[in-house]
Design a protein that fits this description.
277 residues, alpha+beta, Jelly Rolls, nine-stranded mixed β-sheet, three-stranded antiparallel β-sheet, 7 helices, 23% helix, disordered C terminus, binds 2-oxoglutaric acid, binds fe (ii) ion
C-alpha cells in the first residue's frame, strides 16, 4: 500500500506544493474546509437532489444524472452535473478565492473555474447496495473527453472536495503518479478506459478525511476503488470542480449529450434504474 502525502493549503499555493504537483500530478490538502462547511454542502446537495427527483429531471445541460437506490431502497442520484446552477450556497463556494489560487498549479496556463463548462460542478455519490449504479470507476484519465468533443487536449485540473472520511482500506481514489507527463500514446492506451478495475503496482491511494481537497492533472491515470464494505460504511461523496483553459465553451439546456455519456450509461447502468413513481 502506498499513500499520497498530505499538505496544508496555508496561505496558498507554495513553491513546495508546485514542486510536488509538477512531479506527481496530484496533491492532497488536509482540512481545506471544516466539518460545518462539509455539513452545509451536504445539506445543499440533498436539496438539489430533491429538486431533480421531485421535478423528474434526468439530464442537466445534456449531461445525464445517474440514478440508483440507496441503502433504504429509495431512489437517489449518484452523479449530478452542474450542481452549482441549482444552489446559491454551492455557487458561493465556487467563488472561494482559495479555489482560484489553485489555478497556479497550471503553471504558465491561465485557468478558470469551469462552472458552466464540461460537466460543471459534479457531485459523485458512491455506495454499495444491491441496486447501486455506482460502486467504483475504472481506470481513466479525464483528458480524452476533449477529443470526443472534437477538440484538442488542453491542460486542466480536477479538484475534488471530499465530503466523507475514506481510509485507504475503504477504497476510493487511486492514481498512478507521474502519468500526467506521459506521451499521447500512453495517455490513450496505457489501460482500457473505464473497463479495467485492477489494482496497479504503481498506484497510490489516499487517507481522506471529510473536508480534504485533492487536485489532479486531467492527464493523470486514476480510478475509484470499490469499498469492501456494504451499505453505510461504503458511502463516499465527493464534489469535483474542473479548472480549465482554452476558449470559453459554456453548456446550456440545448447542449447535446456527449457520445461517451451514452456509452457510459449503457455500461454502468444496464438495468436502467429509473425514477419510480
Ligand atoms: O470520485 C472520484 O474521486 C473520481 C471521479 C472521477 O475520476 C471522474 O468522475 O472522472
Ligand atoms: Fe476522473
Amino acid at each position: 500500500m502506498s499513500l499520497s502525502p498530505t499538505f496544508d493549503f496555508g496561505s496558498g499555493i507554495s513553491p513546495e506544493h508546485l514542486r510536488h504537483f509538477n512531479e506527481h500530478g496530484v496533491i492532497q490538502f488536509r482540512g481545506f474546509v471544516d466539518k460545518d462547511t462539509v455539513n452545509n454542502l451536504l445539506q445543499e446537495i440533498r436539496a438539489v437532489e430533491y429538486y431533480f427527483l421531485s421535478k423528474a429531471i434526468t439530464k442537466v445541460n445534456g449531461i445525464p444524472l445517474k440514478f440508483g437506490r440507496d441503502t433504504d431502497g429509495s431512489v437517489f442520484i449518484q452523479r449530478i452535473a452542474f450542481a452549482s446552477q441549482y444552489s446559491a450556497v454551492l455557487r458561493a463556494f465556487l467563488r472561494d478565492p482559495r479555489l482560484s489560487d489553485l489555478t497556479r498549479l497550471l503553471g504558465d496556463f491561465e485557468g478558470r473555474i469551469g462552472e458552466n463548462e464540461k460537466d460543471g460542478l459534479v457531485v459523485n455519490h458512491y455506495v454499495n447496495t444491491p441496486s447501486s449504479a455506482f460502486r467504483q470507476l475504472g481506470w481513466h484519465t479525464d483528458s480524452p473527453r476533449d477529443l470526443f468533443l472534437g477538440g484538442r487536449i488542453l491542460p486542466m485540473l480536477n479538484v475534488g472536495l471530499h465530503l466523507d472520511d475514506c481510509s485507504y482500506e475503504n477504497g476510493g481514489l487511486r492514481v498512478i503518479p507521474g502519468t500526467h507527463r506521459q506521451g499521447m500514446l500512453r495517455l490513450l492506451f496505457r489501460k482500457k478506459y473505464f473497463v479495467d478495475n485492477n489494482p496497479d503496482k504503481k498506484e497510490v491511494g489516499f487517507s481522506i478525511q471529510a473536508g480534504d481537497l485533492t487536485v489532479h492533472d486531467g492527464r493523470l491515470w486514476h480510478r475509484v476503488a470499490q469499498s469492501p464494505y456494504e451499505g453505510q460504511r461504503s458511502r463516499r461523496r465527493v464534489m469535483y470542480i474542473p479548472i480549465i483553459t482554452g476558449a470559453y465553451q459554456p453548456k446550456t439546456v440545448d447542449s447535446p449529450t456527449p457520445f461517451y455519456h451514452k456509452l457510459a450509461q449503457l455500461r454502468l447502468n444496464p438495468s436502467g434504474t429509473r425514477l419510480s413513481k
